[in-house]
Amino acid sequence: MTTQDHQASLEPAGDQTLAAAAGGLTFPLAPGYRVKVRSGPGTNFAVVRQLAEGARIEIRCQRHGQQISGPYGTSDIWDNIAPGQYVSDTYVRTGSSGMVAPPCMG
């Protein structure tokens, strides 16, 4: 292993780095769900990864997209948790049926 490989293995994952840098508020996912993270605000977008049960997310911004029904109701709000990564707000316990973060730009 090279010194560069060793240093790279010690660096935190991208999501953790973003959350730590922002130091923002996190929200829990609905209990008992492994939530799919998509590349855009709808089920027609590719699945990027899946979040573990009991995970908490930091919402960077929110945008309107496909309307989805989930454990916390029906909504067209999608939460951006990292660049190019969205989860339906209906799987996130924000305590609100509206937006809790600024709108995503672009």
Structure description:
The chain is α+β, with helices and mostly antiparallel strands and 106 residues long. Helices cover 16% and strands 35% of the residues. It contains 2 helices and 7 strands, in the order ααβββββββ. The strands form 3 sheets. Strands 5-6-7 form a 3-stranded antiparallel sheet, with no helix packed on it. Strands 1-4 form a two-stranded antiparallel ribbon. It has a two-stranded antiparallel ribbon with strand order 2-3. A hairpin with a 2-residue loop joins β6 and β7 (85-88). The chain is globular and about 30 Å long. Residues 1-22 have low confidence and may be disordered.
Please describe the structure with a list of short key phrases separated by commas or semicolons.
2 helices, alpha+beta, 106 residues, two-stranded antiparallel ribbon, single chain, three-stranded antiparallel sheet, disordered N terminus, 16% helix, globular
Give the strand tally.
7
Pick out the low-confidence regions. Answer: 1-22
Order of SSEs, N→C?
A: HHEEEEEEE
Order of strands, widest sheet: 5-6-7
Biggest sheet character: 3 strands, antiparallel
Average pLDDT score: 83
Q: Whole-Å distance between the termini?
A: 41 Å
Number of helices: 2
Strand percentage: 25-35%
How helix-rich are the residues, as a percent range? 10-25%
Give the arrangement of secondary structure elements.
Elements: H1 3-10, H2 14-22, E1 26-28, E2 36-38, E3 47-50, E4 56-58, E5 61-70, E6 73-82, E7 85-88
Antiparallel strand pairs: 1-4, 2-3, 5-6, 6-7
Task: Give a brief rundown of this model.
With 106 residues, the protein is an alpha+beta fold.
